[in-house]
Write the structure tokens for this entry.
Amino acid sequence: MKKKLAVFASGSGTNFEAIAQACADGRLDAEVALMVCDRPGAAVVARAERFGIAHFVASPKSFGSKAEFEREIVRRMDALGIDLVCLAGYMRIISDVLLDAYCGRIINIHPSLLPAFRGAHAVEQAVAYGVKVYGITIHYVDAELDGGRIIAQRAFEYDGNDPEEVHRIGQKIEHVLYIETIQKLLKNL
Ligand code: GAR
């Protein structure tokens, strides 16, 4: 049986789309069973609708607490039998509720060569620092922000000062690297 993915996103959702398309094409031996979004109105929601993928879209503010919000997500993921959770531009720190329930099965993609430039605006931080080698990291998620064990990294050289250009180059790499990495992980689930 195909493994089931949940993809979490907060914004545009190009990584979500790359994963959903790879599942549809058979390049990924999995199905995206759920898309989770914490920002109603984010562009990723329309992408999920276009793919006909079930989605849970809600602002954590509409729940009593962050723990309540995450309990609802866990309840939905358990009901679907989710095997792997892929954070793809999910701009919210995951708490113990999700971490305990899906321990070792949550991964994240981050637009820097970790441990450099953790947190938000990693590309802008790296450009401001003046680095010449940029990159993408995929890592397990633990309680430390962008701190879990690294699974894959890919670097690229860029000698300029335009964050938009770095984002463009980086995202092309993300869309390939995330698929390759998920496919490798699926074999051991
Ligand atoms: C991606 O570039 C991802 O690396 C980044 O958000 C973007 C989401 O793009 N994630 C982080 O910065 C996490 N700290 P997308 O919505 O088009 O997939």
In short: Helices lie at 14-25, 43-51, 66-80, 96-101, 122-129, 163-186. Residues 3-186 form a domain with the Rossmann fold fold (CATH 3.40.50.170). The pocket of glycinamide ribonucleotide is lined by residues 9, 11-15, 88-89, 109-111, 122, 171, 174 (CB under 6 Å). The first helix runs from residue 14 to 25.
